[in-house]
What does this fold into?
Amino acid sequence: MFHPAPTSIHGTLMQIEQQGVLITGESGRGKSDLALALLERKHQIVADDMVLLKRHGEDIIGMHTPDSCAKMEVRGLGIHPISDLFGPHAWVEQSIVHWQLNLSDKPLELLYQHQNRHLGNWHRTQRLNVSLPTLTLGVSEARPLAIIVELANRLVLRQRIHLSEDLQ
It folds into this structure.
């Protein structure tokens, strides 16, 4: 069976309730800030800023790059070991990627105008020939993104998103 070569992607990989969540979006969209909020809520981080992805069977495994091992950049504060900031259990070496979160700065009314209100803003993204459930969320100061991401993760855990044939 052919597997694509490993690749690196600009993003952050978190582990929420044993589910790997790949957070993507353009630079400055709040990926690391969201990761900080999730770490504060006792979730774990695999990689920040750059994630190495490789195919393993039907799964995608995400891990840190050699340069970013167990470190996180907090803009304005510098680059620090994650264990110094959040304790030794806040970092894991790798995780299966179960779903992807894409952060967008499009105006919310444009981002959500065509979504199915019953299904939300879910679609599928191909990574290394694996179809990942992907949620696109608008970035807004007023939105509690960490809580929304936890709720989305519960939907994936309950297979409501993963098994849905409505996702294109």
In short: The helical segments are 31-40, 82-86, 108-111, 145-157. The chain is about 20% helix and 40% strand. The longest strand covers residues 94-104.
